[in-house]
Design a protein that fits this description.
Length: about 525
């Protein structure tokens, strides 16, 4: 008895393989949703077209000088000199000796001004072009990805680079279920965070900005005062989650400074007088002429919070105890600001801004997306019914038509399981790929059925195998052609076309390796007698 079952299993192993993939797809589609998430009916995820949300596509702000040989010059000194000539911050200039490029990240600098600044710095260059380098684009994409992943307001966002046939580079951001303003608010912020000390100089005139980053700020320094950047996010060793205010504490983000930064911060606070006459003396307002001793939390040039030096922190600094831990609180006026500050600290600063005016943005209402979802389902059902009617009209033989139709549906079912397994957000391009998979799958199954039955009934398995192999060669050649034709679309950054190509290629592979061979075994069992 066992030998008989083994022989049947061996002869029909392709059907067993198909069954295994159906079970795996069922688990992928339904089991985690029921056991883990407790969410919807399936584990399928939907993109903007089927769930609503925002899509933003924008180029990067900047110009790049190529063929620049900096020699033995210090890149940091060159960045400072070029920035001063252009009236920018050193953070807006990037010198890359290995790539022989110099970038400037500003909309207010012309090509001639950039060239003159390079010549003033003693640098020769081959050409200046619009746009930034690949390294800058990669850093910007990773930073935006981190911002979105850290932001509780934008769950499930996707960030990718898109390159047009003309060679233009865009950052594409898709955020399902999120409004346009939420996305734009996040990416408009470059995310440069500074702790700036403002203090009286005692000179009776405007103090100079010492040891500063040079970034343009949206606040004025009163006469007789100076500012100095104490540290930025680059000096942070760790960033904790935003916390609600308790008692006299305002909402804040606990951070820890690196050893060297903590020691420098402690020393400068003592030297500038924050730990003695500056304790508790902060009355910051944008128009205040005598703010006292304040530590300002500045994000992209805008003050989001001003704090005085507390007595406890001052005592620790005077005793040189603070630098042993480096713990510090960045306070804000509300918890929303604290969370936004934490995102900027955790993700880092964008190397350059996104040119939103030169890009495009769109928002799909959830109600419209629900309509798309219903119409996509209706289209799939109509496609399946049409296939069923054509198959019935063609063969009038249930032994051929019913397995053919069911095999075509299992192919789509396996594709849905694949999408759920890799958390692929389905959109209209993917739905088009599913419909294409139904069409090409039925075409191949019809080729098999026609070839097998082309010369009348099949009486022996040997005859069936010969006819099936002949049909399968045709199917295999067509599959290779489809994969070769679609492959460039998967690697080129062409947006929705990539999703269509991926689903189509996976559908072809599933068909050639799993469903078509299984259909052949089913036909052999139903049509042959020996």
């Amino acid at each position: 008895m066992s030998d008989g079952y083994y022989a049947k299993a061996k002869a029909n192993w392709r059907v067993l393989l198909l069954t295994v993939f159906i079970l795996m797809s069922t688990i992928s589609l339904f089991v985690p949703a029921a056991v883990v998430s407790g969410g919807g009916v399936t584990n399928l995820e939907y993109g903007l077209d089927l769930d609503g949300g925002t899509r933003v596509r924008a180029p990067f702000v900047g110009m790049t000088a190529e063929g620049v040989d900096v020699g033995n010059a210090n890149p940091s000194n060159l960045e400072t000199q070029i920035a001063e000539d252009l009236g920018l911050s050193p953070a807006d200039v990037q010198v890359r000796p290995s790539g022989q490029t110099v970038e400037v990240f500003s909309e207010n600098v012309s090509e001639s001004e950039f060239g003159a600044a390079l010549e003033s710095a003693g640098l020769e260059y081959d050409s200046i072009r619009s746009g930034v380098t690949e390294q800058t684009r990669t850093v910007a994409r990773n930073t935006v990805e981190d911002k979105i992943s850290e932001s509780p307001q934008i769950p499930g966002g996707k960030v990718q680079m898109v390159t047009t046939p003309g060679g233009e580079h865009f950052l594409l951001i898709e955020a399902p279920g999120v409004t346009r303003d939420q996305v734009l608010d996040l990416i408009r912020e470059r995310g440069v965070v500074e702790i700036v000390a403002i203090y009286p100089t005692g000179s009776g005139s405007n103090g100079t900005v010492a040891n500063d980053t040079g970034r343009e700020r949206e606040f004025n320094v009163p006469e007789g005062y100076a500012t100095e950047t104490m540290f930025t996010q680059a000096e942070l060793a760790s960033v904790s989650s935003a916390r609600e205010g308790q008692g006299t504490q305002d909402p804040h983000v606990p951070v820890s400074l690196r050893d060297g930064a903590a020691q420098d911060f402690e020393s400068r606070m003592i030297e500038l007088g924050f730990t003695n006459e500056g304790v508790g003396r902060c009355d910051w307002r944008a128009d205040q002429s005598d703010p006292g001793y304040c530590l300002l939390t500045v994000v992209d040039g805008e003050v989001v919070y001003a704090a005085n030096m507390g007595q406890g922190l001052a005592d620790d600094m005077n005793a040189r105890e603070y630098s042993k831990t480096g713990d510090f609180r960045l306070e804000t006026t509300n918890i929303s600001e604290a969370r936004a500050l934490r995102v900027n600290l955790q993700a880092g600063a964008l190397p350059t801004d996104l040119d939103l005016d030169a890009g495009t943005s769109s928002y799909i209402e959830p109600s419209i997306a629900e309509r798309f979802k219903f119409l996509s389902l209706l289209t799939g059902v109509l496609a399946a019914l049409t296939v069923a009617l054509v198959i019935y009209a063609r063969y009038r033989n249930p032994k051929v038509s019913i397995p053919l139709f069911l095999t075509a549906l299992t192919e789509v079912y396996i594709l849905l399981g694949f999408a759920a397994a890799i958390s692929l957000p389905l959109d209209l391009a993917h739905i088009a790929g599913f419909i294409a998979a139904i069409g090409t799958g039925v075409d191949d199954l019809v080729i098999i059925a026609d070839e097998v039955m082309s010369q009348g009934d099949v009486k022996t398995r040997r005859v069936f195998r010969n006819r099936f192999r002949k049909a399968f060669w045709v199917i295999g050649a067509a599959a290779i052609t489809t994969i070769i034709a679609m492959s460039p679309l998967t690697v080129l950054s062409l947006g929705d076309l990539s999703g269509f190509a991926i689903v189509t290629i996976v559908g072809v592979l599933v068909g050639v390796l799993i469903t078509r061979p299984a259909y052949g075994d089913i036909l052999r069992t139903l049509l042959t007698r020996e």
